[in-house]
Specification:
TIM Barrel; seven-stranded parallel sheet; disordered N terminus; disordered C terminus; lyase; EC 4.1.1.37; decarboxylase
């Protein structure tokens, strides 16, 4: 059977686009033992660069149906591996799901003993975040421990800076340091188009992560939004006041617009690179967007995020995009206007209020207070149930309202994911118009 006839057969059943992915791989002893079996990718399976998209709702039983109708021969499918869209991707798109998928921002990091042990051997953060083997190992640490529904690449929003002309260092106490901040027209001359070859470790890591988790979880990539990246480049590192860049909005607006436009193009290309390397979903961190008054965010951040969304949509129309801003309570409606698929909520926003303000036509992510993980496990359970109930039965990705805090007990993180997997939406609550979900725990 030809590949074209296989996709035509899918179309004949009325299935929608792109969630069941058929990838050409190599036979294993297990595959030969059970010809035609639908199997997950074994560790480090070598997969050739061929795939076809077939369905967003139909399970592998569709192919059994095709076989019974004589359309395909299952034995001819034994060299293939079948992946359905991960639960997180479905929730991001607003498709019906049986429970809310869960992952945590900063879920790989210093709260884990295994990470601290690795960091002792490799004390440089940039070495850990720019070496393929280390990136993969660290990214998989929480996956191996807790089996979250999303595996995010271990990286940093500043990682791509040297690839377009902005070198930086990370010091133990000060954090990111940019020795040559951009504050004049002459400084802009250092910028150049992004060189993705200099970010090969990101692409290599995403490809390996995609193979490692198979279809069992979504592989997440991420970037910083132009405004947030610009704060580092203009201020020369981290800041509590943002006075230099905020004053530039008034004293050198053309300079700042040129910088933001350059960052927008570079970040757009970087997102597309991550998707083509294997990322199922991309989160855009406008971490410091919440430091702007809403009207200034509307002028200095939103247009550039909107442009990124438009460019990525054109190249990767089926990749969900998440937008997260720390301190976003006054920006929710404006964030929705960027066109992203998911709004990430911090813990200062009430989930029920956010749902009322955003409506049911966009997905949300969050928003348990990270400090809850220091509370008794029973309190964690109740807060997860409350957040999930307020979010409703469709279009919700369970997460913290910020990253995992240093010192968080690992047993609390494990409990968070155990509770998330115990939840089930009542079948009757899959109606998108229902205001509340009935939760079975």
């Amino acid at each position: 059977m030809s590949f074209s006839s296989l996709t035509s057969a899918c179309s004949s059943l009325g299935v929608k686009s792109s969630s069941l992915i058929v990838q050409l791989g190599f036979h294993t002893a297990e595959n030969n033992k059970f010809p035609g079996a639908f199997v997950s990718s074994p560790k480090r399976t070598k997969i050739k660069k061929f795939s076809i998209a077939c369905s967003s709702t139909v399970m592998a039983t569709t192919f059994l149906s095709l076989a019974f109708r004589g359309i395909i021969n299952l034995r001819t499918l034994s060299p293939f591996i079948f992946y359905l869209d991960p639960l997180l991707v479905k929730a991001a798109r607003g498709d019906p799901v049986s429970r809310p998928p869960a992952w945590m921002m900063r879920q790989a990091g210093r709260y884990m003993a295994v990470y601290r042990k690795l960091a002792e051997k490799h004390p440089s953060f940039r070495e850990r975040s720019e070496t393929t083997d280390l990136i993969v190992e660290i990214s998989l640490q929480p996956w191996e421990a807790f089996r979250p529904d999303g595996v995010i690449i271990f990286s940093d929003i500043l990682t791509p800076l040297p690839a377009f002309g902005v070198p930086f260092d990370i010091e133990e106490v000060r954090g990111p340091v940019i020795q040559s901040p951009i504050r004049s027209e002459d400084d802009l001359k250092a910028l150049h188009p992004i060189d993705l070859e200099k970010l090969h470790f990101v692409g290599e890591s995403l490809k390996i992560l995609r193979q490692e988790v198979g279809g069992h979880a979504a592989v997440l990539g991420f970037v910083g939004a132009p405004w947030t990246i610009a704060t580092y480049i203009v201020e020369g590192g981290t800041t509590r006041t943002y006075t230099t860049i905020k004053s530039m909005c008034h004293t050198a607006p053309n300079l700042l617009r040129t910088l933001l436009s350059h960052l927008t193009k570079a970040i757009s290309e970087y997102i597309i690179y991550q998707v083509e390397s294997g990322a199922h979903c991309i989160q855009i961190f406008d971490s410091w967007g919440g430091q702007l008054p809403p009207d200034m965010w509307e002028q200095w951040s939103k247009p550039y995020i909107t442009e990124i969304v438009s460019v990525v949509r054109n190249k990767c129309p089926k990749t969900p995009l998440v937008l997260y801003i720390n301190g976003n309570g006054g920006l929710l409606e404006r964030m929705k206007g960027t066109g992203v698929d998911v709004i990430g909520l911090d813990w200062t926003v009430d989930m029920a209020d956010a749902r009322k303000r955003l409506g049911s036509d966009i997905s949300v992510q969050g928003n348990v207070d990270p400090a809850y993980l220091f509370s008794p496990l029973s309190a964690v359970t109740k807060e997860i149930q409350r957040v999930v109930k307020c979010a409703g039965p469709c279009g919700h990705i369970l997460n913290l309202g910020h990253g995992v805090l240093v010192g968080t007990p690992e047993e609390a993180v494990a409990h968070f994911f155990d509770v998330s997997k115990s939840l089930n939406y009542d079948g009757s609550s899959q109606n998108h118009l229902m205001e509340e979900s009935k939760l079975l725990v």
